[in-house]
Amino acid sequence: MTDNPAGTPEQDTAATDQAEAPGGASVATEEATPPSNDPVESVPDFEPLQASSPRSTRNPEFSRFSGVHVKLIAELGRTEMTLQSLLELSEGAVVELNRSITAPVELVAQGVPLGNGEVVVIDDQFAVRIKEIYPN
């Protein structure tokens, strides 16, 4: 208990408070001490990681995605030119690409290089015979 400036005793509320229990009895309860500003370091204990075998991309979990459409691009070649040269293009112009006729074309799925192959013709349409699928 402390004396206030008026001289009447007060109970120190930082330590205990009087609470009224059912039936009118009073019960002393303690308030929690405010946390200190000192940082407390604790390192949690983790289970050691177990090595797992690599998953195959032909996992049955992927079967639910089998109906998703993916854009596959066969990139024949590329070139760079000035804007002036681009504006001067017209019907019948020839643009040389950076790939020889015997070099494989790149296969790109959704912007990700997938593999390469060679250009073939099937029933008057271009096609690509896959020669290599790149590892993940």
TrEMBL record:
InterPro entries: FliN-like_C, FliN/MopA/SpaO, FliN_T3SS_HrcQb, SpoA-like_sf
Domain called Flagellar motor switch protein FliN-like C-terminal: residue spans: 65-133
Record region (Disordered): 1-62
GO MF annotation, one: cytoskeletal motor activity
GO cellular component term, pick one: plasma membrane
Pfam families: FliMN_C
Gene Ontology BP, a term: bacterial-type flagellum-dependent cell motility
Record keywords: Cell membrane, Cell projection, Chemotaxis, Cilium, Flagellar rotation, Flagellum, Membrane
Biased composition (Polar residues): 1-16, 50-60
Membrane topology: Peripheral membrane protein
Cellular location(s): Cell membrane
Family statement drawn from the similarity comment of this UniProt entry: Belongs to the FliN/MopA/SpaO family.
Protein name stated in the entry: Flagellar motor switch protein FliN
Biological source species: Stieleria bergensis
Gene of this entry: fliN
